[in-house]
Amino acid sequence: MPHNDALSSTESASHDPYANSKSNVARLTIAQALSGANAVVVYATGAIVGNMLSPSQALATLPISIFVIGMAACSLPAGAIAQRYGRRTAFMVGTGCGVLVGLLSALAVVQGLFWLFCVATFFGGAYAAVVLSFRFAAADCVPPSQRPRALSLVMAGGIVAGVIGPQLVTYTMNLWAPYTFAGTFMAQAAVAALSASILVGVHLPNPAAEEAANGRPIREIARQPEFLTAAGCGVVSYLLMNFLMTSAPLAMRMCGHSQESSNLGIQWHVIAMYAPSFFTGRLITHFGAPRVVMGGLLLTGLSVIVGLMGVDITHFWLTLILLGVGWNFGFIGASTLVLECHRPEEKNRVQSFNDFVVFGAVAFGSFLSGGLLTAYGWNTVLWLSFVPLVLAILALARSEVKRGRACPGVT
């Protein structure tokens, strides 16, 4: 029965796959704004709540690492659900996880249970994995020439998430005294429920069963040099953003800065992550995705340099802002490159596999970040960021040189 519902006329709409494009993109943008607050709340509070509840300071960032593990672990199942039942069903499952993370986190704070908070953040990662598929869903529902702009427009909804998330923390963290942040997590659950009500109206076509059966094996697609470059740049862009943002709130606290200052820094970081989305699609259309990705990687490198210049609050804020813009260019550009690596009938499998690779690597970096911060300090975290960054820049440059030789007329 659920499968038949997924193939209803509104969902399949094979006669005109772009019939609901404007409504879909608008709803996905609004949902991105609401759902994106989930990740912001977890990143702003995860290390701090972890430090409050964990038996050891070295485990303070474990909840954020588990959040990223949830993103990686649930990327492939989310793609399978979308392939079998339609993207809208996957969205509903994801927002259900979003409500659950808020309720479980509040209970964990009230009961003082570190393990339960870790379980909650895993569901938060599952929710975030589904939310990040919004960008590909937007690209699916518009003509190919409009895909970069649709993808970046939905990502622009994260600007509102960048405001909602930190303000949610600031104005609700002490509402349920003496349980700091319990009220924040209850509010987060309510925002996730509101997002679900928006996503109910999204209607996207599914590939026919025979089309999906004709898709190439995922290992064949993954071996393409184009896919390796796209996924690699996506990995590094997201890895370094998470690597630094995971540690930044706790690093600011260790340097004597207030929670309010930390919240404001995360707020501007998230705004910087999504604000460029209003024109990133145009930049990609005009200059090409590889050049935009390269610009993002270079901005990320600049953010690391600023972080090494000092530990004043302005250094942290500027580092986070540059890091956000660098992530936007790098990740959206890499996502656009992924769209060029698969056929229509392969999209759900390839896109979910790409996200699995990205978030699997990010989970490793998240674990490494927390241990490095507590053992060696903020500067060590920053210095190590140069290793994957330089490798990604070299790989992208090599790919472009090969592409130029193969297609001399391409600039």
From TrEMBL:
Keyword Manganese annotated: no
Domain of life: Bacteria
Family matches, as InterPro entries: MFS (IPR011701), MFS_dom (IPR020846), MFS_trans_sf (IPR036259)
TM region(s), chain numbering: 30-53, 59-82, 89-108, 114-138, 150-169, 181-206, 227-246, 266-285, 292-311, 317-341, 353-374, 380-397
Keyword Transmembrane helix: yes
The Major facilitator superfamily (MFS) profile domain, residue ranges: 226-411
This protein's UniProt keywords: Membrane, Transmembrane, Transmembrane helix
Name recorded for this polypeptide: MFS transporter
Taxonomic placement: Bacteria, Pseudomonadati, Pseudomonadota, Betaproteobacteria, Rhodocyclales
